[in-house]
Amino acid sequence: MDVIIIIAVAAILIWYLLHRKKKNNWRTPSRVFSKEWRLILENKVVFYNALSAEEKSRFEFKIQEFLLNCRVTGINVDVDVTDEILVAASAIIPIFAFPEWKYTNLSEVLLYPGSFNDKFETTGSDTNILGMVGTGYMEGKMILSKPALHHGFVNESDKKNTAIHEFVHLIDKMDGAVDGLPSILLERQYAIPWIDLINKKIEEIYEDKSDINPYGGTNKAEFFSVASEYFFERPKLFARTHPELYKLMSEVFNQDMQVRDMKKMNQLLGRNSPCPCGSGVKFKKCCGKPHYN
Length: 293
Description:
The protein is mostly helical. Helices cover 52% and strands 6% of the residues.
């Protein structure tokens, strides 16, 4: 028993020293955010456009910080500044409400020219993976399909964003296990309701009674990431169809995405425009109504 205790203490100490080293080596931005980068955000990232001026400055800082500490490398595909900005934006969106957050468990994002398999091969009939958080010898790395990365920021109606999906897995993993229970973000009083609700929602997927991506029925970890895509992509619809889940996820991410979504729509639409949800009434009388907590 004494030997087991000694080994356990040694393992904790080693983890702490490695973690502390990573934290001490974390670099912070010192340059002004470039106009080129800001233009990419304005043209590609609707989340950014719904932020206040102060929030935009904070988002830009986190983009710079991420790219200073995490490489974006192309594997048989070119990587440009737009690719880097979109990867960084995918990382920042879920943790935007946590200014001190650092992805100390990630050092490199690998972009592939398309889908791949679990052996990281890009040819063959089983190449159906668009994103993956590395394990084993790939620990500290993330693999993303470059087309899937861009698609996540082009199509805002399909409730899918591969890169955000994988960064949510990485957030989930920060407590040591990818299990759909992000204890590093989830306050203790919400843990049991969270698990119970996930089980209920997975059962609805099995019974074909849910509009959540069926892949979320795979396990709790995949459900968390799939639901997060929906939460950030279509918050109004998510809140309307899954109000209890929306409320809990707002607590997890400390963000009310309905408010951000309404700001975005107010920028894109006039109050008398037809509502984009397809209700047939004016925006101001439908999704454009003020939202109150």
